[in-house]
Every structure is written in C-alpha cells, then in structure tokens.
Amino acid sequence: MNNVMNLNAELLRELSYIADDENYLKKALKAIRKLVVQREEEEHPSVVAEDTEEYRPLTKAEVMENIRQAFEDAKLIREGKMKGIPAEELLNEL
To answer: Where are the domains of the chain?
Structure first.
C-alpha cells in the first residue's frame, strides 16, 4: 500500500512538470488511457474488445442533451411512468 502511495505521488509530481503544456498533457492522457485499456483487456478480455475506440470528449450540446435526458428520466420516475434503478444496484454496477 505504501509503495502504491509513493508511486501515485511520483506520478503526480511528474505530471506537474508538464501541467502548463496542453500538448504534453494530451499525450500523457492518451498513454494512460492505453494502459487502462490494456489492463482491462488482461482482466476482462471479452468485455474490452467492444470499447477500444479512441476517446472523444463530449461536445457541449451532447452534455446538455444528456442532462436534459436525465431530468426527463427523473420526472418520469417521480410520476411512476418509468422504473428507476435502486441506488445499491447502481453502486454494484460501478
């Protein structure tokens, strides 16, 4: 555990050296995402094969649409027209 904490601190320290350069941060983020995909492939080979497309941040319009949809879903759940997911089940999915 202590070794993991030391590695985390070292990683953050190294990232702080490039924190003011957007291009280098993008490169670091891309490399880390590749490592995450690699780890997921090792742990769950059949699941990751579908999700290997390149990361693309959502546009403002997409974010706003997602928020609008979430409010609409919440309204339907309150009105009893849609069934919600229990919080415990949602947490178990994560």
So the answer is: 1-54, 57-94
